[in-house]
Write a structure and sequence with these properties.
Elements: H1 3-13, E1 30-34, E2 37-40, E3 45-48, H2 51-54, H3 63-75, H4 87-99, E4 104-110, H5 113-130, E5 138-142, H6 151-155, E6 175-177, H7 190-202, E7 207-212, E8 216-217, E9 223-224, H8 227-239, E10 243-247, E11 271-274, E12 286-291, H9 292-300, H10 316-331, H11 334-349, E13 358-364, E14 367-372, H12 378-387, E15 390-391, E16 398-401, H13 409-426
Parallel strand pairs: 3-15, 5-6, 5-7, 7-10, 10-11
Antiparallel strand pairs: 1-2, 2-3, 4-12, 8-9, 11-12, 13-14, 14-16
Helix pairs in contact: 3-10, 4-10, 5-9, 7-8, 11-13
């Protein structure tokens, strides 16, 4: 299909994420992707600064992951997980149990990150029903968070950026604490945690769990907060007998410089969600992990089982690729690689601090963020990035980079220079 025909059909029928079918955002047809490069149909190459929404940590067309997919396709692409099991899923759940905090011993495989959050919330609610406290069914979270676009997941996203008002009367009403003011690397004083502590004490009798993104709040604002704050949240959950759900979908598998962001605080959640980088961006797959206590409590109550079961749960093809992706990550010196990217982002984005209209520049692990004082003209800014040969997709007031871990120093420098140049020209 030539680019013109492709774009005509796309414009007529394809509904892209967060877009209008009337006033459409421009789209760029892709022919192929290899390494850190996206090849457009017109022949241009773009250095990818997004890892395709943070999942393609090994880049594109990786021979190890390609081989894992090919080998599994020769055996079976799918079989139902109800009443059957298979080696790719068994290997994956064992590996996830080995890598995540010790209390997490049971793995529920899901279709996507948003679904894994739905599963986590359902686990928390069913846990309290099994414990004969069905009144405990609300969630406490912090503002500026993002957990997905399905209804329960959206209910714990930031009330403003999550567009709660569009679904008033439909979304469950949750409890929101202010976003942490103490930044990563700082201590968290009593005043910092006081609003959260007051809400957890006031609503204790109706709360099933606390849910948050540990250390890094992703699509809700790309904010990095204190590990001490997370430790204090864990202590409050213990004190008031609440479950803690850690949403590691965006932060898991090394993105923050730790394999999982909870490690920065040295805490273990009762329930954890993982996704995005789980398959290296090849197929949609996520998982919800639960402690033995949570799983046994649910299984001991009525109806004696956890009530969820996706059609594509434990898909063998996705599990096989996930196993290969995890082993590929662990076989290399991923920690040094992320530290190298962190240094490159810190040095490369530093000039943005002197630009007019820049509110903050922050870097953690393989995440670099330039926060503006006003919303970015996304269409115009994105077009300028494409003209410079890079793929960067801003949102709101944020221009950020989350490149694949395999990016080389020249590519990383080009990405950072493009951010500096585009923001200089735009302002």
């Amino acid at each position: 299909m030539n680019p013109e025909a492709l774009l005509a059909i796309d414009q007529a029928h394809a509904w892209h994420p967060y877009t209008s079918t009337i006033d459409r955002d421009p789209v760029y047809p892709v022919r192929a992707a290899r390494g850190c490069r996206i090849e457009l149909m017109d022949g241009r190459e773009l250095i990818d600064g997004m890892s395709s929404w943070w999942c393609a940590i090994h880049g594109y067309n990786h021979p190890v992951l390609n081989q894992a997919a090919s080998d599994q396709l020769a055996r079976m692409s799918h079989v139902m997980f109800g009443g059957l099991t298979h080696e790719p899923a068994v290997r994956l759940v064992r590996r996830l149990v080995e890598l995540t905090p010790e209390p997490l011993q049971h793995v529920f495989l899901c279709d996507s990150g948003s679904v894994s959050v739905e599963v986590a919330i359902k686990m928390a609610i069913q846990y309290w029903r099994a414990a004969r406290r069905p009144d405990r069914r609300r969630l406490l979270t912090i503002r500026c968070g993002y957990h997905g676009d399905t209804l329960n997941a959206m209910s714990v996203c930031d009330p403003v950026t999550g567009m709660h008002h569009l679904f008033a009367g439909v979304l469950p009403e949750q409890v929101f604490a202010p976003a942490p003011a103490c930044r990563f690397g700082e201590s968290c004083g009593d005043d910092d945690i006081a609003p959260f502590a007051e809400l957890i004490e006031r609503h204790q009798a109706e709360l099933a769990a606390v849910i948050l993104e540990p250390i890094v709040q992703g699509a809700g604002g790309m904010r990095f907060y204190s590990a001490d704050y997370l430790r204090r949240v864990r202590a409050l959950c213990d004190r008031f007998e609440l479950l803690l759900i850690a949403d590691e979908i965006a932060t898991g598998f090394g993105r923050t410089g730790a394999l999982f962001a909870c490690e920065h605080a040295g805490i273990a959640p009762d329930i954890m969600t993982v996704g995005k980088a789980l398959t290296g961006g090849y197929l949609t797959l996520a998982a919800t992990l639960a402690s033995r206590h949570v799983a046994r409590t649910i299984s001991s109550g009525e109806p004696g089982a956890f009530m969820h079961g996706p059609t594509f749960m434990g898909n063998p093809l996705a599990c096989a690729i996930a196993n290969a992706s995890i082993e590929l990550l662990l076989a290399g010196d991923w920690r040094s690689g992320v530290e190298r990217i962190e240094r490159g982002l810190s040095d490369g984005l530093a000039p943005c601090r002197d630009l007019p209209g820049v509110a903050d520049v922050r870097v953690l692990g393989a995440i670099g963020v330039v926060e503006m004082t006003e919303p970015v003209a996304m269409r115009e800014v994105q077009r300028r990035f494409v003209e410079r040969g890079v793929w960067v997709r801003p949102f709101g007031r944020l221009v950020y980079l989350m490149p694949p871990y395999i990016i080389d120093d020249v590519e990383l420098r080009t990405l950072c220079e493009s951010v500096v140049d585009v923001l200089s020209a735009w302002r």
